[in-house]
Amino acid sequence: MTRGIISLQKMQVVSWVYLAVLTLGAWGLFSWALAWSVLVGGLIAILSFWVSQRDLTQFLETLPVGEEMTEGQAKSQFKKSGFLLRFWIRIVIIGVVVLLLIRFSSINAFGLIMGLSTVVFAVALTAVEIVRHYYFSGRR
User: Fold this and answer.
1) What is the distance between the alpha carbons of residues 5 and 22, in angstroms, rounded to a whole number?
2) If 0-12 CB within 10 Å is exposed, 13-18 middle and 19+ buried, where does residue 101 land?
């Protein structure tokens, strides 16, 4: 489990670094308005990823480790945790925040989308690194 947590923490760091580079690049090459939009989108994505990581870690800690668990017990435990409900509430909140930002502020939609992609980039980069490590470590 420790390796999984380290990978999630690494994705958090990669997300922050990518967001900083993307924001500074947008500011240097285009405008502060675009950079601000990238920063806001990135903050929304990284915060959501962080909350999701925390919820998933808490959920996994509630599962019994050494015992066999029937499918019914697993579903019951899953429902008790409210994990799915929190996930959907988070998605709705993100949607409302993005809607309000686009509707009532002068945020650049393209910059916002670029910022929202920070976690996707971190996940993709981590996946590529894992595949590279698998193929070049002699494990095949």
Assistant:
1) 25
2) middle
What is the pTM assigned to this prediction? 0.75
Domain spans of the chain, in order of start? 2-59+78-136
Cα separation of 39 and 107, whole Å? Answer: 11
Tens place of pLDDT per residue across the chain (140 aa): 445 545 778 888 889 999 999 999 999 999 898 999 999 999 999 999 888 888 777 777 766 665 666 665 666 666 666 777 888 889 999 999 999 988 888 888 899 999 999 999 988 888 888 888 778 776 65
> Residue 16 corresponds to which tokens in the numbers above?
């922050």
The first and second tokens of residue 29, run together, are 């090459």
Question: Quick check: 23 and 42 in contact, CB under 8 A?
Answer: yes
CB distance 76 to 90 below 8 Å: no
At 82, which helix (H) or strand (E)? none
Contacts of 7 (CB under 8 A, 6+ apart): 126, 130
Which residue, chain included where needed, has tokens 């992609």? 117
